[in-house]
Design a protein that fits this description.
Blueprint: E1 5-6, H1 16-24, E2 29-33, E3 39-40, E4 55-59, E5 63-72, E6 84-91, E7 96-99, E8 114-123, E9 128-136
Parallel strand pairs: 1-8
Antiparallel strand pairs: 2-3, 2-4, 5-6, 5-8, 6-7, 8-9
Amino acid sequence: MTMTEVRPNRVLGPGHDEFWSYCAEGELRLQRCGACRHISWPPLAACEKCGSEDLAWERLSGRGTVVSWCTFERRYYRELPVPWDAIVVELEEGPLFVSNPVGFGATNTTFAMRVQVTFLECEDEVGPFRLPVFEKA
């Protein structure tokens, strides 16, 4: 049986609800502009590059490289005991994605380390959800 982690509340609402629905299916999808092909993150009503509202949710590979990381030693969220690690992943498709590492931490993270998305069973005040996190590829 999989353990469910309690996490800080997700951002919900237009765009975000769709993102979490795809995560529930085990898919990492972000919005791609039909006009200029730019991928936006976080969700927007119009492309941040060209302003077009022609945005579609595209399934991404989930692969990327670590470009930055840190360890939080101060308690920012009551749900997350310290210390906890965060990473910035440059996805193969281009966007930067802030997440958490799984199976490794700051002490054994290296620049350009290859990673792959996986989904962690979590819950917040709204209910259960699947959080995209990254493991070594």
